[in-house]
C-alpha cells in the first residue's frame, strides 16, 4: 500500500469518475434527506448502505445508520425481545461495514461503526478475529486494524501476554512493522503497570526488549521501525521524577533590589543589584521537564516580608495541556520596608504532592531554596537615569568577566549556586548501565555501518548519559562527550541534508549544554555592560552567544540571571526558552532567521525588556508563513478580546494588516527597538509601532515622534 | 518379469520416436516430442512410471534396487531379418545395505512413496517449476512447503539457515555483527540484480573469482561463509580446500543461487518458504510429463521389456526394437534409460557407452525412516552438513531432506529422511552417510531393540529420532549421449533438476533441431482429452 506512484487519470477514467461522483451525490442527497426527516424504512436504510459501500468516508451516513439501527432495535424491544432479529439487524451492519472496508480499509467511520455494533454485545468476536486476520494479510501495518484488535482483545478479555506474543509473531514475520512495535509498547506498559506475573521486574523485561530490538537494528539498520521502538525503550529507561533544576534567585544568594538601578551602596555590598520600579521581584522555578500543579499549595514561600501573601504561580512556557518547565511568581516588597533590611526568603518546592510531569511522574522530592534580598529604602528621590539612557551595544562598553574582579565573583557565585535537596534523587544504577551498554552496541554497529539513525541514536545516548552523570554527581565537569556529539550532528547534517533543520536544532542544544556545563566555559561568554554615558548605573550582567550558528535555544535554566543577552548572527528560527529569562532588559537578535512576529511570542512575558534588536531577520520575507498561524492568532481564539481598535480607526495604518505585530508589542514596554532589515518594515508599520508602544523612545535609532 | 504372455500388440509399428524407460528426462522428451507433433511410443519394462526417478512403496524400492545392483541375466536370444543386439541392464547401484530395526515400516510398505533419487526438492523459482507451469502439468501435481532448512554440526545440533531478512532477525546463534554482515551481503546481491545503477553491480573480476574468496572479501565470518556456500549456494565440495575441491563455485553462480533462493520466497502465496516438495513424491513429476505426453498422443506401454535393438544388416545402423512379446517396432530414433546397455562390441557407438559411465564420482544415497522429527514441530525440512563438520576428511557436503506424512510419502506419524553425498568410491560414500546418520539419529542397540518397555523409556530420554529402517546405496553418475540411439542421464548429485533439465533440453534439440521445446501455445485444450491414449496391460 505504500510508495505507489500517482498516475494521471486518462480521459475515460475522468469521465467514469465524474459519473460515479454524480451517482454518489444523488445517493448522498437522498440519505441526507432521510436523515433530516428521520425516515428509517427498509428502502431508505438500503440506500444508505449503497452510499456507504461506495463511499465509506461519509460520516453522516454512518451516523444515520446508527440512528436507524437504534430505531429498529427499539421497535424490536417493544414487540418483545427476539434475539434472532436483533442478531440479524446487527449482522447486516457488520456486513455493510465489511463491504465498506473492502472499499477502503482505512476508513475511520467504518471502523468506528463496527466498534459501535460490537459494543452492543450481540456479535461473535471469533468472526472479528478472522476478519482481522484477513486485514493483517492485506497490510500488516494497518493501524486501524491494530486499533480494532486492541478493542476486540478487550472485549474477549484476551490476556495481555497473549497479545504480546502476537506482536512477537508479527515482528518475527516482518520486523518493519511500526504498528506491531507500537502495540508491543502499549501492551508492555500495561503489563508493567499491573506488575503481572513475570512483569514486576522492569529491569529484566527491558533487558530482554533491548536484546529483541537490537537484533532488528543490527539486521537492517536502515529500517526505522525498530529504532522507533528503541527510542521508546530509551525513554522508559530514562524516565525519572521531574526535579527542580534551578531557580531565580538561586539558592544561597544575596541580592540587592534597587528601584532605580543606581549604584547605591554597591561598594559595601558585593552582591548583584537588580532593578525594579514596582518593588517586585520575579521568583522563577525551572524544572527538568514540563510539570503542572505548581501552586501555593505545592510550593511555599516563607519570608517575614511576605507573611500572608498569596502567591500565584504562572507557567511561562506552557504547552496546550498546561505543562511548563518554568514557573513564575512575584515577590512584592512593601514600601515600608526599611533601608538595607535583609529579607531572608525560603521557598519549599514540592512541599505537598501535586507537581507532576506530563508522563504522570510526581515530583515527590521536596527541596528548599533560601536567599536573602536586601531592599533599599525608598525615601530617596530617584532620578530617571536608567530609563532614559540608550543601549548602544558598543564594544567598549562591554567588559569581559574572565579576570578576577568583583563582578566576576558575583557572576561565578550565581553560576555555582546549587539547589539543596533533602534527598537528592540518585540515578538508578540500572539506567546508567543500560545506557552505557546501548552506547557500546551503537558504537559497534556504527563501526561497520554508516547509518544515520544509528548516529542520531548514539548522539542521544551520549547526551542521556551526560544528563544521568550530572544528576548523580553534584559537581560540574562531565562534559566528556560533547565534542563527539557535536561531531555526530555535523556528520548527520552532511549525510542527511533533508533533515538539516532538525540536526541544527539538536546541535544548538548540545552546544548550549556544553557552554553552560561548567562555570569556566560559561564565564567565557559572560560580560558586564556599562553604558559609558552613564557610569553611575549598575552594570548589566551580560551573556554573549553571538555567531555560534544556533538555530534554537536551550539550557536556559543556567541563564536565569541574565539581564543582557546577545544572540545576534546565529541561525535562530525560534526563540522558545527565552520566556524564562525574566530579568532580561536588553536583547540582541539581529541577523538571525526569525521569519515572523509570532516567532517572537516568548518575549511577551518579559516585562523588564526595554531594548530589542530584531533587525536583519526574515520577518515578512516569506509569503506563506505557516508559523504565523501556528501560534496564537485571531483565528485560534487563544488571544483575548482586548483589541484596541479605536486607536487605529482613523489612520491608514490598518490593524488587520499587523495583527501579529499588535499581539506581540501591545504588552511590551520597549524603549528601544531595532527592526530595520526585515521585509515587513515600512513607514506605516513604524508609525503603527510608535503608536502601539507609547514607551518607545527610539525606533531604528531614530527618535519616535 | 511377467510369466504370462498376455502382452498387448502395439499398433502401428512405425513411430517417429521410441523411448524406453520413463525416467524424468525420457518423460520430458516424450512429452516435448509429442507436443511437437511427433508420433512417440513410450515403453517401460517396469510396472511403474519413473524408472530411476520413481517413488516406490518400500518393498518395491528394495526389490528395484536389488534388481539393478547385481549382475544381469543374459536375455533370450532372438532372431529376425535384422541384426539384433540384446538389450541388457547394467548395474548402476552398488553396496546396497538395508537395516531393519523395526518391522513397522515394512508392515506398512505400501503406505510409503520413497524416492529412488532423493533427496530432491524444488525452489519455487526453479526452471523446472517454470516448465511445470508452462506445460500445465501442475494440474496433475500438488505441492507442499519444505518448512525450514538447517545446518547441522557433528552432534546433530540443528541451526536455522538465515535465508531471509526475518530469518536473520530471528536467528539465535548469529552474533549481532554477523546479522549485520549477512543482511548487508544480501542487500549487495539484491543491488546487483536490481540493476538500477552500474555502481551497485558486483565487478566482473569478482564474478569470475571463487565465491568463497568473494565472501571473504566481503568480510563474512567463517560461519556465514559456510552457511552461504553449503546451505544456500548448495556447494557439493569443500570450497575452502581448493586443491581437493572438484567443483569450485564462482561468485556468479553463487549469487545466482542466492537470487534464486530469494526470488523463490513468496513466489507462491501459499508456500511459506523458498522450497516445495510434490505430494506423493518426486515420482509424480515424470508421471505428470507422461500424462501430458499421452494427452498429445504418445502411446504408453508399461511392463513391456525391450529385449533387443534391431540393426540394419548392411550398414549396422539402428532400425527398431524387439519387444519381449516378439513384436518388432521401428523408428528413426531411440532413446533409452541410462541402465540399458549392449553386451557386445557390436553396439552403434561403444565409445559413447563407455564415456557415459566415465564419471569417477558417485553419489551415496540413503533413506531413513523414524517416528520422530529431526526438529520438533517441523514436518518437512532440509539439513546441510557442511564439509569437515563430521570429521576432518569429509570433503563433500551431506544433504538431508526430511519429509513427513503431510506430503503422503509415509504413514502419518512417521518421517522419511533422505541423505546424499558425493563420494569418490563406495567406502568413502558409506563412511560419509553412516557418519551423518549417526549424527542425526540414534541407532537401536541390537540387544534391547526387542524390549518394548526399555524402548519407550529410552525413546523418552533420547532427543534424536530412533531409526526404524534404513537403506544405503551408492549410485553411479552417468551423462547422457546423443545418436540414433540416445541415452539419458542418471539422477545427478544435485538437489534440483536444473542441470538435468538443461541436458534434456539439449538432447531434445539435437534430436529435433527444428522443433520447439514445448511451445506455449500447446496449452489449449488438454483438459478435454485428458489421458485418452494411455495403454496399460
Short description:
The complex is a heterodimer of chains A (705) and B (537). With 705 residues, chain A is an alpha/beta fold. In chain B, the strands form six sheets. An eight-stranded mixed β-sheet of chain B has the order 6-23-19-22-21-20-10-11. A five-stranded parallel β-sheet of chain B has the order 13-2-1-17-24, covered by helices on one side. A four-stranded antiparallel β-sheet of chain B has the order 4-14-15-16, with no helix packed on it.
Secondary-structure blueprint of this entry?
The complex is a heterodimer of chains A (705) and B (537).
Chain A: H1 11-36, H2 42-54, H3 59-78, H4 83-103, H5 108-119, H6 125-138, H7 143-156, H8 160-173, H9 178-194, H10 202-219, H11 224-238, E1 244-248, E2 254-258, E3 273-275, E4 280-292, E5 300-303, E6 314-315, E7 324-332, E8 341-349, E9 356-357, E10 367-375, H12 385-388, E11 398-400, H13 406-416, E12 420-421, H14 429-448, H15 452-472, H16 482-495, H17 500-516, H18 519-523, E13 526-529, E14 540-544, E15 564-566, E16 586-588, E17 611-613, H19 626-630, H20 659-665, E18 672-674, H21 683-692, E19 698-699, E20 702-703
Parallel strand pairs in A: 2-3, 2-10, 14-15, 15-16, 16-17, 17-18, 18-19
Antiparallel strand pairs in A: 1-4, 4-7, 4-9, 5-8, 6-7, 8-10, 10-12, 11-13, 13-14, 19-20
Helix pairs in contact in A: 1-2, 2-3, 2-4, 3-4, 3-5, 4-5, 5-7, 6-7, 8-9, 9-11, 10-11, 10-14, 11-15, 14-15, 15-16, 16-17
Chain B: E1 17-20, H1 24-35, E2 40-43, E3 55-56, H2 58-69, E4 83-86, E5 88-89, E6 93-100, H3 104-107, E7 114-115, E8 122-123, H4 127-135, E9 143-145, E10 148-152, E11 158-160, H5 165-170, H6 176-194, H7 204-208, H8 211-217, H9 222-232, H10 251-264, E12 275-278, H11 284-295, E13 299-301, E14 306-311, E15 318-323, E16 328-330, E17 333-336, E18 340-341, H12 350-355, E19 362-370, E20 381-385, E21 398-404, E22 415-423, H13 426-440, H14 452-461, E23 467-476, E24 485-487, H15 498-511
Amino acid at each position: 500500500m505504500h510508495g505507489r506512484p500517482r498516475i494521471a487519470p486518462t480521459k475515460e477514467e475522468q469521465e467514469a469518475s465524474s459519473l460515479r461522483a454524480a451517482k454518489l451525490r444523488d445517493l448522498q442527497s437522498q440519505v441526507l434527506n432521510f436523515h433530516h426527516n428521520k425516515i428509517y424504512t427498509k428502502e431508505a436504510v438500503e440506500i444508505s448502505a449503497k452510499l456507504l459501500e461506495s463511499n465509506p468516508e461519509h460520516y453522516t451516513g454512518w451516523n444515520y445508520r446508527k440512528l436507524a439501527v437504534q430505531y429498529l432495535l427499539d421497535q424490536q424491544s417493544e414487540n418483545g425481545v427476539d434475539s434472532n432479529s436483533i442478531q440479524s439487524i446487527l449482522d447486516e451492519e457488520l456486513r455493510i461495514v465489511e463491504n465498506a472496508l473492502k472499499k477502503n480499509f482505512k476508513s475511520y467511520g467504518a471502523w468506528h461503526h463496527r466498534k459501535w455494533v460490537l459494543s452492543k454485545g450481540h456479535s461473535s468476536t471469533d468472526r472479528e478475529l478472522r476478519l482481522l486476520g484477513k486485514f493483517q494479510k492485506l497490510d500488516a501495518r494497518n493501524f486501524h486494524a491494530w486499533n480494532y484488535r486492541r478493542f476486540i482483545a478487550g472485549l474477549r478479555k484476551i490476556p495481555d501476554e497473549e497479545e504480546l506474543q502476537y506482536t512477537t509473531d508479527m515482528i518475527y514475520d516482518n520486523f518493519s512493522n511500526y504498528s506491531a512495535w507500537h502495540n508491543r509498547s502499549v501492551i508492555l506498559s500495561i503489563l508493567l503497570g499491573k506488575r503481572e506475573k513475570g512483569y514486576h521486574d522492569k529491569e529484566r523485561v527491558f533487558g530482554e526488549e533491548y536484546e529483541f530490538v537490537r537484533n532488528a537494528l543490527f539486521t537492517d539498520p536502515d529500517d526505522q521501525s525498530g529504532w522507533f521502538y528503541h527510542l521508546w525503550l530509551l525513554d522508559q529507561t530514562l524516565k525519572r521524577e521531574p526535579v527542580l533544576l534551578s531557580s531565580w534567585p538561586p539558592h544561597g544568594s544575596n541580592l540587592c533590589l534597587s528601584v532605580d538601578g543606581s549604584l547605591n551602596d554597591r561598594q559595601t555590598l558585593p552582591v548583584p543589584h537588580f532593578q525594579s520600579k514596582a518593588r517586585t521581584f520575579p521568583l522563577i522555578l525551572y524544572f527538568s521537564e514540563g510539570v503542572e500543579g505548581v501552586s501555593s499549595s505545592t510550593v511555599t514561600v516563607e519570608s517575614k516580608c511576605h507573611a500572608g501573601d498569596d502567591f500565584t504561580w504562572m507557567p511561562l512556557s506552557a504547552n496546550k495541556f498546561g505543562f511548563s518547565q518554568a514557573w513564575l511568581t512575584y515577590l512584592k516588597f512593601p514600601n515600608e520596608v526599611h533601608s538595607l533590611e535583609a529579607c531572608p526568603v525560603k521557598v519549599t518546592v514540592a512541599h505537598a504532592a501535586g507537581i507532576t510531569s506530563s508522563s504522570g511522574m510526581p515530583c515527590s522530592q521536596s527541596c528548599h531554596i533560601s536567599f536573602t534580598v536586601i531592599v533599599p529604602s525608598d525615601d530617596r528621590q530617584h532620578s530617571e537615569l536608567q530609563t532614559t539612557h540608550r543601549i548602544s551595544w558598543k564594544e567598549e562598553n562591554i567588559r569581559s568577566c574572565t579576570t578576577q574582579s568583583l563582578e566576576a565573583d558575583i557572576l561565578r557565585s550565581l553560576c555555582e549556586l546549587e539547589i539543596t535537596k533533602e534527598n537528592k534523587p540518585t540515578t538508578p544504577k540500572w539506567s546508567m548501565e543500560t545506557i552505557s551498554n546501548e552506547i557500546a552496541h551503537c558504537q559497534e554497529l556504527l563501526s561497520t555501518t554508516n547509518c544515520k539513525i544509528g548516529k542520531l541514536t548514539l548522539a542521544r545516548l551520549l547526551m542521556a548519559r551526560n544528563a544521568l552523570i550530572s544528576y548523580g554527581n553534584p559537581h560540574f565537569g562531565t562534559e566528556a562527550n560533547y565534542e563527539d556529539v557535536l561531531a555526530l550532528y555535523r556528520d548527520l547534517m552532511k549525510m542527511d541534508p533533508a533533515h538539516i533543520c532538525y540536526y541544527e536544532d539538536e546541535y544548538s542544544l548540545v552546544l548550549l549544554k556544553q557552554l553552560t556545563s561548567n562555570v569556566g566555559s560559561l564565564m567565557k561568554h559572560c560580560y558586564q555592560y556599562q553604558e559609558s554615558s552613564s557610569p553611575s548605573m549598575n552594570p548589566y550582567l551580560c551573556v554573549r552567544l553571538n555567531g555560534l550558528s544556533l538555530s534554537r535555544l536551550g539550557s536556559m535554566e543556567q541563564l536565569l540571571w541574565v539581564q543582557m543577552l546577545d544572540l545576534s548572527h546565529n541561525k535562530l528560527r525560534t526563540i522558545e526558552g527565552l520566556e524564562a529569562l525574566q530579568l532580561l532588559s536588553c536583547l540582541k537578535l539581529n541577523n538571525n532567521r526569525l521569519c515572523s512576529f509570532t516567532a517572537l511570542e516568548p518575549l511577551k512575558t518579559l516585562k523588564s525588556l526595554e531594548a530589542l534588536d530584531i533587525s536583519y531577520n526574515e520577518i515578512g520575507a516569506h509569503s506563506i508563513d505557516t508559523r504565523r498561524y501556528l501560534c496564537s492568532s485571531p483565528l485560534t481564539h487563544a488571544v483575548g478580546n482586548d483589541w484596541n481598535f479605536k486607536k487605529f480607526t482613523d489612520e491608514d495604518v490598518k490593524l488587520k494588516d499587523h495583527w501579529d505585530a499588535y499581539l506581540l508589542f501591545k504588552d511590551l514596554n520597549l524603549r528601544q527597538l531595532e527592526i530595520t532589515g526585515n521585509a515587513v518594515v515600512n513607514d506605516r508599520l513604524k508609525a503603527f509601532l510608535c503608536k502601539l508602544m507609547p514607551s518607545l523612545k527610539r525606533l531604528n535609532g531614530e527618535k519616535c515622534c | 518379469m511377467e510369466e504370462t504372455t498376455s502382452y498387448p500388440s502395439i499398433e502401428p509399428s512405425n513411430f517417429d520416436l521410441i523411448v524406453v524407460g520413463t525416467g524424468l528426462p525420457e518423460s520430458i522428451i516424450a512429452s516435448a516430442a509429442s507436443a511437437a507433433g511427433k508420433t512417440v511410443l513410450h515403453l517401460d519394462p517396469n510396472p511403474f512410471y519413473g524408472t530411476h526417478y520413481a517413488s516406490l512403496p518400500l518393498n518395491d524400492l528394495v526389490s528395484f534396487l536389488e534388481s539393478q545392483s547385481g549382475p544381469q541375466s543374459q536375455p533370450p536370444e532372438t532372431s529376425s531379418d535384422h541384426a539384433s543386439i540384446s538389450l541388457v541392464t547394467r548395474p548402476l547401484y552398488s553396496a546396497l545395505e538395508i537395516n531393519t530395526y523395526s518391522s513397522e515400516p515394512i508392515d506398512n510398505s505400501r503406505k510409503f512413496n520413497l524416492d529412488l533419487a532423493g533427496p530432491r526438492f524444488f525452489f519455487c523459482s526453479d526452471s523446472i517449476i517454470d516448465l511445470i507451469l508452462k506445460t500445465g502439468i501442475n494440474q496433475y501435481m500438488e505441492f507442499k512447503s519444505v518448512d525450514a532448512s538447517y545446518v547441522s554440526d557433528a552432534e546433530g545440533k540443528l541451526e536455522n539457515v538465515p535465508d531471509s531478512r526475518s530469518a536473520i532477525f530471528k536467528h539465535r546463534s548469529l552474533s549481532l555483527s554477523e546479522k549485520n554482515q549477512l543482511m548487508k551481503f544480501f542487500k549487495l546481491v539484491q543491488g546487483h540484480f536490481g540493476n538500477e545503477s552500474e555502481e551497485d553491480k558486483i565487478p566482473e573480476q569478482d564474478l569470475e573469482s571463487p565465491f568463497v574468496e568473494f565472501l571473504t572479501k566481503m568480510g563474512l565470518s567463517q560461519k556465514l561463509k559456510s552457511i552461504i556456500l553449503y546451505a544456500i549456494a548448495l556447494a557439493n565440495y569443500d570450497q575452502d580446500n581448493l586443491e581437493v575441491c572438484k567443483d569450485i563455485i564462482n561468485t556468479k553462480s553463487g549469487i545466482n543461487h542466492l537470487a534464486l533462493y530469494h526470488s523463490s520466497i513468496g513466489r507462491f502465496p501459499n508456500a511459506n518458504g523458498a522450497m516445495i516438495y510434490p505430494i506423493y513424491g518426486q515420482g509424480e513429476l515424470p508421471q505428470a510429463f507422461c500424462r501430458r505426453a499421452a494427452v498429445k498422443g504418445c502411446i504408453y506401454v508399461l511392463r513391456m521389456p525391450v529385449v533387443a535393438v534391431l540393426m540394419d544388416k548392411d550398414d549396422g545402423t539402428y532400425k527398431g526394437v524387439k519387444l519381449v512379446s516378439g513384436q518388432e517396432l521401428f523408428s528413426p530414433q531411440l532413446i533409452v534409460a541410462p541402465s540399458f546397455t549392449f553386451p557386445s562390441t557390436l553396439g552403434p557407438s561403444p565409445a559413447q557407452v563407455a564415456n557415459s559411465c566415465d564419471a569417477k564420482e558417485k553419489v551415496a544415497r540413503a533413506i531413513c525412516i523414524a517416528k520422530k522429527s529431526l526438529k520438533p514441530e517441523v514436518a518437512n525440512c532440509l539439513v546441510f552438513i557442511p564439509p569437515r563438520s563430521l570429521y576432518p576428511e569429509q570433503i563433500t557436503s551431506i544433504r538431508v531432506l526430511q519429509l513427513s506424512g503431510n506430503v503422503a510419502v509415509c504413514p502419518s506419524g512417521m518421517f522419511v529422511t533422505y541423505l546424499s553425498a558425493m563420494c569418490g568410491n563406495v567406502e568413502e560414500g558409506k563412511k560419509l552417510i553412516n557418519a551423518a546418520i549417526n549424527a542425526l539419529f540414534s541407532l537401536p542397540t541390537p540387544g534391547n531393540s526387542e524390549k518394548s518397555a526399555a524402548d519407550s523409556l529410552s525413546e523418552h530420554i533420547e532427543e534424536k529420532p530412533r531409526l526404524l529402517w534404513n537403506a544405503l546405496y551408492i549410485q553411479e553418475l552417468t551423462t547422457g549421449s546423443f545418436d540414433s540411439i540416445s541415452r539419458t542421464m542418471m539422477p545427478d548429485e544435485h538437489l534440483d533438476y536444473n542441470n538435468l533439465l538443461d541436458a534434456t533440453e539439449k538432447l531434445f534439440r539435437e534430436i529435433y533441431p527444428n522443433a520447439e521445446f514445448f511451445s506455449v501455445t500447446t496449452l489449449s485444450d488438454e483438459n478435454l482429452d485428458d489421458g485418452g491414449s494411455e495403454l496399460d496391460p
